[in-house]
Amino acid sequence: MSKVTNILLAGVGGQGILLASEVLAEVLMLAGHDVKKNEIHGMSQRGGSVTSHVRYGEQVFSPIIPDGEVDILFGFELLETCRYMPLLRGDGRIIANDLRIMPPAVATGKQDYPAGLEQVLTSAAEAVIIPGLELAQQAGNVRTVNTVLLGALSNMMDIDAELWRKALEKMVPPRFIEENLAAFALGRDWRN
């Protein structure tokens, strides 16, 4: 049976998770893998949880990652990343944006945003916490956080940088490609 690698993208609506999963799937196909993906939108338009399952290998039969088999947990927001940690494989890795988006209960003052989430992530697995918003601002557009994060993710994968560029050029509208390529490079070059 061939090895299937599982990447779970997790965050909230409006963070560009679906575009990131499209780019990721495209680069994996360009690299010659069989790829399956699935999105769960929830209340995404209202800031709710959004996940995307991306599975790749020689042959993949299902787009849904089984519980406990996530190889890379790719988080766009800290609390959402922590929420999906139980799905991580024992030797799984985490890459997470350091962003905190206040859920409605926190925004209305009914609850506090949990403290110490970075420590929770780094004590549970090999984890990289990246300042995605800060790097996207350096790239010239805060909406490129997802591409910054893809750049950081690319360091965990054995895929040529040229294939990432081709996937971005195919999936990102031409008028935004230069800032997205800059954002990708900033994420790829960033070091903890």
Report on this structure:
There is one protein chain. This protein has a single domain (4-189), classed as Pyruvate-ferredoxin Oxidoreductase, domain 3 (3-Layer(aba) Sandwich), CATH 3.40.920. α5 packs across α6 (145-154) and α6 packs across α8 (177-189). It has helices spanning 17-30, 78-83, 104-107, 117-124, 132-139, 145-154, 161-171, 177-189; strands at 4-12, 34-40, 49-57, 70-75, 88-97, 126-130. The chain is an alpha/beta fold. The chain has a 6-stranded mixed beta sheet with strand order 2-3-1-4-5-6, with helices on both faces.
Question: What features would you highlight for this structure?
Answer:
single chain; 192 residues; alpha/beta; Pyruvate-ferredoxin Oxidoreductase, domain 3; 6-stranded mixed beta sheet; 24% strand
Q: Given this structure, which CATH class is correct?
A: Alpha Beta
Strand content: 15-25%
Shape descriptor: globular
- Average pLDDT works out at 93
Largest sheet, spatial ordering of strands: 2-3-1-4-5-6
Please report the distance between the alpha carbons of the first and last residues.
Answer: 36 Å
Which fold name fills CATH's third level, the topology?
Answer: Pyruvate-ferredoxin Oxidoreductase, domain 3
| Uncertain residue segments | none
Structural class comes to alpha/beta
The CATH homologous superfamily is called Pyruvate-ferredoxin oxidoreductase, PFOR, domain III
Number of helices: 8
Record field, number of beta strands: 6
Q: Give the fraction of residues assigned to helices.
A: 25-40%
Order of helices and strands: EHEEEHEHHEHHHH
| Total domains | 1
* Cα-based radius of gyration, to the nearest Å: 16 Å
Major beta sheet summary: 6 strands, mixed
